[in-house]
Amino acid sequence: MMSNPEPGLPLLPGTSCADPTKTDFHRSQTLNYTHGYAMARRPTVGIGGDRLQVNQLSQADLDELANKAPLLTYGEPKPAAPPEFIPAHVAFDKKVLKFDAYFQEDVSMSTDEHYRIRQVHIYYYLEDDSMSVMEPLVENSGIPQGKLIKRQRLPKNDRGDHYHWKDLNRGINITVYGRTFHIVDCDGFTQEFLESQGIELNPPGKMALDPYTELRKRPLHQYVTPSDFDQLKQFLTFDKQVLRFYAIWDDTDSMFGECRKYIIHYYLMDDTVEIREIHERNDGRDPFPVLMNRQRMPKVLVDAKNFPKCVLEISDQEVLEWYTAKDFIVGKPLTILGRTFFIYDCDPFTRHYYKEKFGISDLPCIDVSKKEQPPVKQELPPYNGFGPVDDSAQNCFVLIPKAPKKDVIKMLMNENKVLRFLASLESPYPEDKGRRFVFSYFLATDMISIFEPPVRNSGIIGGKYLGRTKVAKPHSPPGNPIYYSPSDFFIGAVIDVFGHRFIILDTDDYVLKYMESNAAQYSPEALLSIQKHIQKREAPAPKLEKKPTGVDPSMQELEALIDRIQKQVKDHPCRDNIREAFQVYDKEATGFVDREVFFKICSTLSVPVDDSLTKELIRMCSHGEDKINYYNFVRAFSN
């Protein structure tokens, strides 16, 4: 076999040469056996295993050659005879599609009906695609019926299209000349024709009925079986027989509510109820005699959501149960039209009726009178710290506060009377040690003013330290403060003024005269301090052991005992608060406390009352069997 190694050379003698290396010249198989059957197969390689050239023809060319093979074999085919032409008016002559439909028409000027349902038949003529709408005649309808739309092609939209039988189906709406028709069903021929044309029909619907037409089909007169209850017999039997109940309506839980009394009348002749008000003199209400007019009272209403609530007249159709005489029981609450009444009594005729009719013979008579509650004690609110307590309390008594009343007699008797004292400031700061203050106590108003005399080169500006004001004692209640009185001012006394502690050092001559003339107001401790001050001023002794002239020997013995106890209990923990502990119980500043209170305070502060010196001091400070003067006792244990 000759082969052409060069693809560009023509396959001619002299241009081809044999391949000397080729030794295989067999031909590939074209048959193959599958499941025992000989099947033709296309060889993949040529003679000697040479590669076959790929077919250069496209699939379209191959298909064309396959189609031309019969033509080349048998020649040109004969054309078929043209079909016979049948015009549409012949092919679809007397073939009509029928649909059942209805449309809704509004009725504006009628009280019996608001809308009307009109049933129609829609015909579709296949021969010319025309349609007509016919309404069957209804007897005594009063409406011109028959042909609603004559036969014509009906417009489908504004673009000039017309309805075709392909647009019609069950369960759809079509609008023709402003009327919307709802297609419900069709006849058998129409269903068979549309299904043969490949149209899937919707399931048939239900034809709507005209409510007014159905109403007219009902019988004109409906027979109602009369009730066995004889109202005329009830009227004649119970005429002028009325049950009278006494009730209250307690509305005190609401704002501005009150407890009011009513009379409930139940008329046996027609089972009606009347509620009358009971007015009292000067009750502040208009004299309306009737709260509710005589009427039948519903007990259980029908739960109708669309029932007009504005209608006052209620018929038997809206009520399941009415109030009867057995619902009015003395001692039980009764709710009428949303208001709960409590029946507490009835008249003798009502008691006799319940005994004869229901067998109830023990109707109680309940006392509903409310006892007057004791008047609420007015309590002042806590003191807020602004202004005097008496002045702030006036805002709680009246709407327009007035100035608190003053003791005019005291002001007239003590006018221009001032007690002056010299005091030093008890302060931990060393620069305050040498400061001196002048206390002025005004007897007319019980006010205190403090003045600091200026000292040159002291670095402290003197002048008014505190203006006229009332100073309350420490640890006194804010709402009922205890103010300093003249008996609290004596030599050696500690005065606490708004957290600053002052020690009285000296007094003027008028204070001494005032204390001598009003010795009953002062404690023995205060009088003793004045006596010591007078002795030091008149004849100061160089030695402390020397007995002062004009002093009672018992007082001298008391002072010596106090000095011994002070040396013995120098570091006792009660020295800082023993004075305040006794002053809490002695609110009137008398200087005396009960014996039980005295030993209770000593036990609380761990004072050694079992010591011999302390027992002797208690004996000397005792005033009778029940009272103890704690001023001298405090001096022995305080700073």
From TrEMBL:
Gene name in the database record: EFHC1
One of the Pfam families matching this protein, by short name: DM10_dom
Main location: cytoplasm
Gene3D superfamilies the record matches: 2.30.29.170, EF-hand
EF-hand domain ranges (all copies): 573-608
Official protein name in the record: EF-hand domain-containing protein 1
GO cellular component, one term: axonemal microtubule
Complex and partners: Microtubule inner protein component of sperm flagellar doublet microtubules. Interacts with the C-terminus of CACNA1E. Interacts with alpha-tubulin.
Compartment(s): Cytoplasm, Cytoskeleton, Flagellum axoneme; Cytoplasm, Cytoskeleton, Microtubule organizing center, Centrosome; Cytoplasm, Cytoskeleton, Spindle pole
GO MF assignments: alpha-tubulin binding; calcium ion binding
UniProt-listed GO biological process terms: cerebral cortex cell migration; cilium-dependent cell motility; mitotic cytokinesis; mitotic spindle organization; regulation of cell division
UniProt keyword terms in alphabetical order: Cell projection, Cilium, Cytoplasm, Cytoskeleton, Flagellum, Repeat
Originating organism: Myotis lucifugus (Little brown bat)
Annotated ranges, domain DM10: 93-198, 239-358, 415-519
InterPro entries: DM10_dom, EF-hand-dom_pair, EF_hand_dom, EFHC1/EFHC2/EFHB
Keyword Acetylation assigned: no
Region (Disordered): 1-23
